[in-house]
Known about the structure:
alpha+beta; Aminopeptidase; about 220 residues; single chain; globular
Amino acid sequence: MVARPGRRVLYSPPCASRWNRKLSWLWFKALPTVGDAGKEGGRRMRKKLFSEIPTLTGERLVLKRLGPADAEPLRELVDSPRVYRWLPTFLFEKRYPDVREVIGRLYTECLESSLILGVFRDDAFCGLAEIYGLRDPIHKVSVGYRLLERCWGQGIAGEALGMMIDYLHTETDIEIITASTMVENRASAGVLRKNGFSLVVHGVDEDWGYEKPTVADKWIR
Protein backbone atom coordinates (compact mmCIF):
# COMPACT_ATOMS: atom_id res chain seq x y z
CA MET A 1 0.00 0.00 0.00
CA VAL A 2 1.15 3.55 -0.67
CA ALA A 3 1.65 5.19 2.68
CA ARG A 4 0.79 8.45 4.32
CA PRO A 5 4.01 9.20 6.23
CA GLY A 6 4.45 11.59 9.11
CA ARG A 7 5.54 15.17 8.71
CA ARG A 8 8.65 14.83 10.90
CA VAL A 9 11.84 13.38 9.46
CA LEU A 10 14.03 12.02 12.25
CA TYR A 11 17.28 13.23 10.73
CA SER A 12 18.59 14.53 7.43
CA PRO A 13 20.93 12.09 5.69
CA PRO A 14 22.29 12.95 2.23
CA CYS A 15 19.32 11.29 0.52
CA ALA A 16 16.91 13.56 2.42
CA SER A 17 18.91 16.56 1.23
CA ARG A 18 18.52 15.35 -2.36
CA TRP A 19 14.75 15.16 -1.78
CA ASN A 20 14.68 18.77 -0.53
CA ARG A 21 16.79 19.93 -3.46
CA LYS A 22 14.44 18.16 -5.88
CA LEU A 23 11.42 19.91 -4.37
CA SER A 24 13.24 23.25 -4.42
CA TRP A 25 14.02 22.78 -8.13
CA LEU A 26 10.40 21.91 -8.88
CA TRP A 27 9.22 24.94 -6.92
CA PHE A 28 11.58 27.18 -8.92
CA LYS A 29 10.45 25.58 -12.16
CA ALA A 30 6.82 26.24 -11.22
CA LEU A 31 7.37 29.98 -10.69
CA PRO A 32 5.45 31.97 -13.32
CA THR A 33 7.14 34.07 -15.95
CA VAL A 34 5.72 36.82 -18.12
CA GLY A 35 5.19 34.28 -20.88
CA ASP A 36 3.23 32.06 -18.52
CA ALA A 37 0.40 34.57 -18.02
CA GLY A 38 -2.05 32.54 -20.07
CA LYS A 39 -1.06 29.34 -18.33
CA GLU A 40 -1.43 30.98 -14.91
CA GLY A 41 -4.85 32.29 -15.87
CA GLY A 42 -5.92 28.79 -16.85
CA ARG A 43 -4.60 27.40 -13.58
CA ARG A 44 -6.59 29.93 -11.57
CA MET A 45 -9.75 28.69 -13.27
CA ARG A 46 -9.15 25.21 -11.82
CA LYS A 47 -10.57 24.09 -8.51
CA LYS A 48 -8.65 24.45 -5.28
CA LEU A 49 -7.97 21.14 -3.61
CA PHE A 50 -10.38 20.38 -0.74
CA SER A 51 -12.94 22.86 -2.13
CA GLU A 52 -15.17 19.91 -3.07
CA ILE A 53 -15.69 16.22 -2.36
CA PRO A 54 -15.47 14.81 -5.88
CA THR A 55 -16.89 11.64 -7.39
CA LEU A 56 -14.39 10.15 -9.82
CA THR A 57 -15.54 7.57 -12.36
CA GLY A 58 -13.18 5.23 -14.21
CA GLU A 59 -13.50 2.17 -16.42
CA ARG A 60 -14.20 -0.19 -13.51
CA LEU A 61 -14.03 1.95 -10.40
CA VAL A 62 -15.75 4.84 -8.71
CA LEU A 63 -13.97 6.93 -6.09
CA LYS A 64 -16.53 8.69 -3.94
CA ARG A 65 -17.60 9.86 -0.51
CA LEU A 66 -18.11 7.18 2.13
CA GLY A 67 -21.45 6.87 3.90
CA PRO A 68 -22.91 4.98 6.89
CA ALA A 69 -23.57 1.89 4.75
CA ASP A 70 -19.80 1.49 4.26
CA ALA A 71 -19.09 0.98 7.97
CA GLU A 72 -18.91 -2.82 7.86
CA PRO A 73 -16.40 -3.14 4.99
CA LEU A 74 -14.39 -0.24 6.41
CA ARG A 75 -14.14 -2.15 9.68
CA GLU A 76 -12.87 -5.17 7.72
CA LEU A 77 -10.16 -2.97 6.20
CA VAL A 78 -9.13 -1.32 9.48
CA ASP A 79 -8.94 -4.67 11.30
CA SER A 80 -6.55 -6.24 8.75
CA PRO A 81 -2.96 -6.50 10.06
CA ARG A 82 -1.72 -7.47 6.60
CA VAL A 83 -3.05 -4.26 5.07
CA TYR A 84 -1.57 -1.95 7.69
CA ARG A 85 1.84 -3.61 8.01
CA TRP A 86 3.00 -1.33 5.16
CA LEU A 87 1.38 1.82 6.55
CA PRO A 88 1.87 4.45 9.29
CA THR A 89 0.12 4.01 12.61
CA PHE A 90 -1.73 7.32 12.62
CA LEU A 91 -4.03 7.12 9.59
CA PHE A 92 -7.37 8.84 10.14
CA GLU A 93 -9.52 5.71 9.84
CA LYS A 94 -7.73 4.34 12.92
CA ARG A 95 -8.18 7.47 15.02
CA TYR A 96 -11.53 6.42 16.50
CA PRO A 97 -12.55 2.93 17.67
CA ASP A 98 -15.99 3.21 16.06
CA VAL A 99 -15.72 3.32 12.25
CA ARG A 100 -19.12 5.01 12.12
CA GLU A 101 -17.55 7.95 13.94
CA VAL A 102 -14.65 7.86 11.49
CA ILE A 103 -17.06 8.13 8.56
CA GLY A 104 -18.96 10.92 10.30
CA ARG A 105 -15.75 12.96 10.65
CA LEU A 106 -14.14 12.22 7.27
CA TYR A 107 -15.55 15.30 5.55
CA THR A 108 -15.31 17.71 8.47
CA GLU A 109 -12.35 17.11 10.79
CA CYS A 110 -10.33 15.01 8.36
CA LEU A 111 -10.95 17.33 5.41
CA GLU A 112 -8.91 20.03 7.12
CA SER A 113 -5.77 18.22 5.94
CA SER A 114 -6.77 15.18 3.90
CA LEU A 115 -9.34 14.03 1.36
CA ILE A 116 -10.24 10.34 1.75
CA LEU A 117 -12.53 8.70 -0.80
CA GLY A 118 -13.90 5.18 -0.90
CA VAL A 119 -12.80 2.96 -3.77
CA PHE A 120 -15.78 1.04 -5.19
CA ARG A 121 -16.17 -1.58 -7.91
CA ASP A 122 -19.70 -2.57 -8.89
CA ASP A 123 -20.90 -0.64 -5.81
CA ALA A 124 -18.78 -2.87 -3.54
CA PHE A 125 -16.26 -1.20 -1.20
CA CYS A 126 -12.65 -2.09 -2.05
CA GLY A 127 -10.62 0.34 0.04
CA LEU A 128 -9.56 3.95 0.50
CA ALA A 129 -7.82 6.51 -1.69
CA GLU A 130 -6.24 9.52 0.02
CA ILE A 131 -4.93 12.93 -1.07
CA TYR A 132 -3.03 14.76 1.67
CA GLY A 133 -0.06 16.95 2.55
CA LEU A 134 -1.06 19.99 0.49
CA ARG A 135 1.68 22.59 -0.01
CA ASP A 136 -0.32 25.25 -1.78
CA PRO A 137 2.52 27.69 -2.71
CA ILE A 138 4.17 25.07 -4.93
CA HIS A 139 0.96 23.27 -5.96
CA LYS A 140 2.16 20.00 -4.40
CA VAL A 141 0.25 17.16 -2.75
CA SER A 142 0.80 13.53 -1.77
CA VAL A 143 -1.33 10.47 -2.52
CA GLY A 144 -1.87 7.07 -0.93
CA TYR A 145 -4.26 4.13 -0.89
CA ARG A 146 -5.10 0.92 1.01
CA LEU A 147 -7.24 -1.96 -0.21
CA LEU A 148 -9.06 -4.91 1.30
CA GLU A 149 -6.96 -8.07 1.04
CA ARG A 150 -9.56 -9.72 -1.20
CA CYS A 151 -9.11 -6.87 -3.68
CA TRP A 152 -5.35 -7.25 -4.07
CA GLY A 153 -3.83 -8.39 -7.36
CA GLN A 154 -6.70 -7.19 -9.56
CA GLY A 155 -5.28 -3.91 -10.86
CA ILE A 156 -7.51 -1.86 -8.56
CA ALA A 157 -4.64 0.01 -6.92
CA GLY A 158 -3.19 1.15 -10.23
CA GLU A 159 -6.54 2.27 -11.60
CA ALA A 160 -7.48 4.15 -8.42
CA LEU A 161 -4.09 5.87 -8.36
CA GLY A 162 -4.43 6.84 -12.02
CA MET A 163 -7.86 8.33 -11.33
CA MET A 164 -6.46 10.47 -8.51
CA ILE A 165 -3.63 11.68 -10.74
CA ASP A 166 -6.02 12.55 -13.56
CA TYR A 167 -8.30 14.47 -11.20
CA LEU A 168 -5.44 16.41 -9.63
CA HIS A 169 -3.82 17.38 -12.92
CA THR A 170 -6.98 18.18 -14.91
CA GLU A 171 -9.46 19.47 -12.33
CA THR A 172 -7.28 21.16 -9.69
CA ASP A 173 -4.24 23.45 -9.64
CA ILE A 174 -1.93 20.70 -8.37
CA GLU A 175 1.28 20.25 -10.39
CA ILE A 176 3.53 18.06 -8.21
CA ILE A 177 2.38 14.72 -6.80
CA THR A 178 4.47 12.71 -4.34
CA ALA A 179 4.15 9.37 -2.56
CA SER A 180 6.04 7.33 0.05
CA THR A 181 6.47 3.58 0.46
CA MET A 182 8.34 1.28 2.80
CA VAL A 183 11.41 0.02 0.96
CA GLU A 184 10.12 -3.56 1.33
CA ASN A 185 6.81 -2.73 -0.35
CA ARG A 186 7.72 -3.72 -3.88
CA ALA A 187 4.12 -4.17 -5.01
CA SER A 188 3.24 -0.52 -4.39
CA ALA A 189 6.56 0.57 -5.91
CA GLY A 190 5.49 -1.20 -9.09
CA VAL A 191 2.09 0.50 -9.04
CA LEU A 192 3.76 3.90 -8.71
CA ARG A 193 6.18 3.24 -11.57
CA LYS A 194 3.35 2.14 -13.86
CA ASN A 195 1.60 5.45 -13.10
CA GLY A 196 4.60 7.57 -14.04
CA PHE A 197 6.25 8.12 -10.67
CA SER A 198 10.03 8.29 -10.33
CA LEU A 199 12.03 7.21 -7.29
CA VAL A 200 13.95 10.27 -6.09
CA VAL A 201 15.06 9.24 -2.59
CA HIS A 202 15.81 5.69 -1.44
CA GLY A 203 15.96 4.56 2.18
CA VAL A 204 15.30 7.72 4.18
CA ASP A 205 14.35 7.32 7.86
CA GLU A 206 10.92 8.77 8.71
CA ASP A 207 8.58 8.83 11.69
CA TRP A 208 5.58 6.63 10.83
CA GLY A 209 4.57 6.21 14.46
CA TYR A 210 6.51 3.01 15.17
CA GLU A 211 9.06 2.47 17.94
CA LYS A 212 11.91 2.65 15.42
CA PRO A 213 12.28 4.87 12.34
CA THR A 214 10.64 3.58 9.17
CA VAL A 215 12.97 3.26 6.18
CA ALA A 216 11.02 4.75 3.26
CA ASP A 217 11.34 5.51 -0.43
CA LYS A 218 10.16 8.87 -1.80
CA TRP A 219 8.47 9.14 -5.19
CA ILE A 220 7.49 12.07 -7.37
CA ARG A 221 5.44 12.63 -10.49
